[in-house]
Specification:
Helices cover about 30% and strands about 5% of the residues. It is built from one helix and two strands; from the N terminus they run αββ. A two-stranded antiparallel ribbon has the order 1-2. The protein is elongated, with a radius of gyration of 20 Å. The termini are far apart.
Length: about 60
């Protein structure tokens, strides 16, 4: 796409997202400070931790069923 046509569309998309958002994040944590030791398969990766979908708590350590 032509840059002169793309940038106005990009700015419009940002304006819509800005106007419609319920709140604005002004800060974020770069690291997880703690993790319950019941969780298994948690691996540190460059961006923090692997996907939560891969974590699990063994049946013997589950508190809620």
């Amino acid at each position: 796409m032509d840059e002169s046509k793309r940038m106005p569309l990009w700015r419009k998309a940002h304006a819509i997202a800005y106007d419609d958002q319920p709140y604005t994040f002004i800060a974020f944590s770069k690291a997880l400070v703690f993790m319950d030791n019941r969780f298994e398969n948690v691996q540190r990766v460059r961006l923090g931790l692997n996907s939560p979908g891969e974590w699990f708590v063994p049946a013997s350590r589950q508190r809620y069923k």
